[in-house]
């Protein structure tokens, strides 16, 4: 009996422990569930496959959405740097570009920037060190994510600063050494009335810390990151295509060319390299300047932009007799052509100093303080500026330089006069023009079908040249007013955020440029019923261009070659 009682007591004592042990085993089995080989939820993306913008158009190149917000490519030319997220650092107060998340596949939080854009690498580990997420502190994760996004949008370890113009080269180098920097380049910019230097951080200090220290130096007036800017096209390879140009009819170019063809008007194209030997561009490029100092050959984007403006062989540009200043500011990167704050400023400065009446900027990027300053100075000289709205889509905030009020922002349309699907929207859009499936020249005497608001902007730059030929007294504000008042209304009645005032009408705009003051601008807008399109005359185009370039305009300095070499 005693033995039996002892057994019962022992059993009663161990019963709760046995129940607990069973529970622990069950919990551990749940925790081991992740041992199942579950793949990442981030989809694998083939970078060569582009999203389909208009699946109803067969045998057309597929438009690739703008890749600006993706991890940027490596540096241009010899100015190489490695992209990586810096640990720590203070959140910068400098503005930066924001891009639409709708152009990218769903991604996990670790890959998403503070404004919704999806990067190719984690950004949440920016302040945590060793790959850990910075989740502690008041807003630490948000601040570090913002800093990481800036790091991905700017050239790693580079700063652009305005320095005392009285400093010699040796003194500028000494300034750099005092702050742990290397001076890559510096030059005087007449456009800004100051000297701008490009510097590289030579140690591992956070860029924003170095920026604040350099800004405190008495020989330095301003400092910022060297931001990246990207061309706004679909980045499709050159292909052979149908010679039909729907843009010619939509813009009413043949009718407009009976009144003006852009003769003696100079347009600067700040872009990638232009194939000046292409038959479509023969005798049209009056001067070239390489702001990169690179050895790259002609590029498909720059050649296409030039063609949209001055093509005059098999194709028809919007201003076939205009003079072009071909300014190379964009060089090849791993994901498309790119440029930086310093290089674009060199292009703006050259254009303003060499007689540009119109500057075409078919690129987009952040609200860059240095470029904003250059645009303000350019506008003060009475130079008209036109820019692509961008290809970041419906949810994108305004991109620059198009969003600058001194610039005419152009959105894109397609062959059905619908909005180009990738085109940016916003209350800064002034006007629209064809930008989807545009047939244009490409390097090596080839042709391409491509898409992007880049080409919409180029068409409008050419239309502005027609207006200036017709009435050289027009100011940039006058050109903007006429373009918007003569545009064909598209979309909802009146001005809207998709098309601005509507699609550009070259014939109406050129007519209005010299119309009597008693004639309302509205009377020349719209295409008359039954109007026929004049036949193209390529031979006349070539002859006219040759005549137009025989007489150099007074604004084109005779020493431009020496100035070009000096820069």
One letter per element, helices H and strands E, the order comes to HHEHEEHEHHEEHEEEHEEHEEEEEHHHHH
The number of distinct helices, counting runs of at least 4 residues, comes to: 14
Straight-line distance between termini:
110 Å
* Shape summary: globular
How much of the sequence is in beta strands?
15-25%
Number of beta strands: 16
Give the structural class.
Answer: alpha/beta
Radius of gyration: 29 Å
Mean pLDDT: 74
Low-confidence stretches: 14-109, 111-121, 123-142, 237-243, 516-567
Biggest beta-sheet profile: 7 strands, antiparallel
Helix content: 25-40%
What are the SSEs and their pairings?
Blueprint: H1 2-31, H2 140-153, E1 154-163, H3 169-178, E2 181-189, E3 194-201, H4 207-215, E4 220-231, H5 246-251, H6 253-257, E5 266-271, E6 285-290, H7 300-310, E7 323-328, E8 331-333, E9 336-340, H8 341-353, E10 358-361, E11 363-364, H9 369-380, E12 384-388, E13 408-413, E14 429-434, E15 438-442, E16 446-450, H10 453-470, H11 476-486, H12 506-513, H13 538-550, H14 560-566
Parallel strand pairs: 5-7, 5-10, 6-7, 10-12, 12-13, 13-14
Antiparallel strand pairs: 1-3, 1-4, 2-3, 4-9, 4-11, 8-9, 15-16
Description of the molecule:
The chain has helices at 2-31, 140-153, 169-178, 207-215, 246-251, 253-257, 300-310, 341-353, 369-380, 453-470, 476-486, 506-513, 538-550, 560-566, and strands at 154-163, 181-189, 194-201, 220-231, 266-271, 285-290, 323-328, 331-333, 336-340, 358-361, 363-364, 384-388, 408-413, 429-434, 438-442, 446-450. By secondary structure, the chain is of the alpha/beta class. The strands form three sheets. Strands 1, 2, 3, 4, 8, 9 and 11 form a seven-stranded antiparallel β-sheet that branches. The protein has a seven-stranded parallel β-sheet with strand order 6-7-5-10-12-13-14, sandwiched between helices. It has a two-stranded antiparallel sheet with strand order 15-16. A hairpin with a 4-residue loop joins strand 2 (181-189) and strand 3 (194-201). The N and C termini lie far apart (110 Å).
